Amino acid sequence: MKKQKHVVVIGGGASGIVAAISAKRNGADVTLLERNSRVGKKILATGNGRCNLTNINSDINFYNGQNPKFIYSTFGQFGIQETLSFFEKLGIEYKVEANGKVFPMSDQSSSVLDVLLYELNHLGVTIITDCYVTELKKNKRTFLVKSSDNKTFLCDSVVFATGGKSMPSSGSDGSGYELIKKLNHTIVPVFPSLVQLILQCDFLKRIDGVKFVGRADLIVNKKSCSTDRGDILFTSYGISGPPILQLSRKAGEFLQNNKECYIRLSILDTMTEDEIQKRLERRFEDNSYKTIFESMIGLVNKRLIPVILLEANISNQNRLASTLTKLEKKQIASLLKKWDFQIIGTKDWNNSQATAGGVNTNEVYSDTLESKKVEGLFFSGEVLDIDGQCGGFNLQWAWSSGMLAGRNAATL
Ligand SMILES: Cc1cc2nc3c(=O)[nH]c(=O)nc-3n(C[C@H](O)[C@H](O)[C@H](O)COP(=O)(O)OP(=O)(O)OC[C@H]3O[C@@H](n4cnc5c(N)ncnc54)[C@H](O)[C@@H]3O)c2cc1C
């Protein structure tokens, strides 16, 4: 008879929890180590407290990293259908919302964590909290895991699921990278993803809080390299909103490479520039007795009008609309269609929802998630150099990779 394996899972986030369940279901004796006083803290914050647990459209196009194809094998073995059925069996009824986003019927991320905790307990996984792992070594066939309070754990296999650096208050502070470097793994440089952008702009304080539904393009070398549409929000430092978070991954990458990049906003994105121009002509004609400022009320958010006019080099907004020159009208139309702002940074880890970069996937077998450098060491979740777009893709990666890493840690 094969000897029962002892598996230690380091990190009790989404991925580590599922890895522990998977390893236990596959016959191992499992210990889950978590530095916080409870496991799954970040799960509670996901999807604005509703947990966007996956996306029915998940495929490689929604993932980034030096080698996004790395996910193929994992998703082939445990994909969306398997994930949905895993959660259904645990008690989570789900619903599919706009753009394929899947949420629990309860609209509560706490219910996702609850059912995972029930399963951990039901299976008899040993959970040790307040356990900050500071050392990981391998002696011959046995791993030695040490925590900051000098607890030591010996085991046959390890699942390394310490997450990235996003939302450090949830426990993922990047300490995992330092641990794993000591085992000769390399880390693809990390930067915040799914994060707000900081813009070079003098008048942001005046439009802080202004929201509109429109389009945003990421511009590099005068060309759009990515675009998204939805609720966009000006803030005192720059810009936020779902389309901005989606573009932030690429923007962060350009900034890392010292490339100049811009965000191009289209406030009236459903009209062509020509149509906007014609609409403006008519408005200014109909409202010729009003000031320029007054004549634009009702077309765009009122707080945007003074700054748009300033940008169009119209300093006196109290002139009558009838005095606008052709060039001035053209400039206003152009700004409403494509208004460029230089991106000078992203907000920090406290604000980001995902980590770009991480453990180099070239050093990990894609079909088993085992390290190519240390036999018996498996990786799962955000600690790897894989990150997804907004919309349930990151949790899907956490569940799929956790399931596979846990199973293989128990059986290989
Ligand atoms: C605000 C917010 C909202 C999000 N919403 C969504 C969403 O709706 N849908 C979606 O798909 N994704 C969402 N994400 C992303 C998603 O939550 C993460 O990609 C996912 O949780 C990663 O899981 P993980 O287990 O790999 O890492 P983590 O969840 O970060 O877990 C890592 C765990 O390891 C522990 N740990 C770290 N170092 C050590 C150590 N040295 N010793 C012991 N323990 C350690 C940490 O305390 C932590 O509990 C969101 C992220 C944030 C920040």
UniProtKB/TrEMBL annotation:
Domain (RsdA/BaiN/AoA(So)-like insert): residue spans on this chain: 192-352
Where's the RsdA/BaiN/AoA(So)-like Rossmann fold-like domain? Answer: 6-407
Pfam families on file = HI0933_like, HI0933_like_1st
Cofactor(s) recorded for this entry are: FAD
Which controlled-vocabulary keywords does the entry list?
Answer: FAD, Flavoprotein
Q: Which residues form a coiled coil?
A: none
Alphabetized InterPro entries for the sequence: BaiN-like, BaiN-like_dom_sf, FAD/NAD-bd_sf, RsdA/BaiN/AoA(So)-like_dom, RsdA/BaiN/AoA(So)_Rossmann
Q: What is this protein called in UniProt? A: Flavoprotein family protein
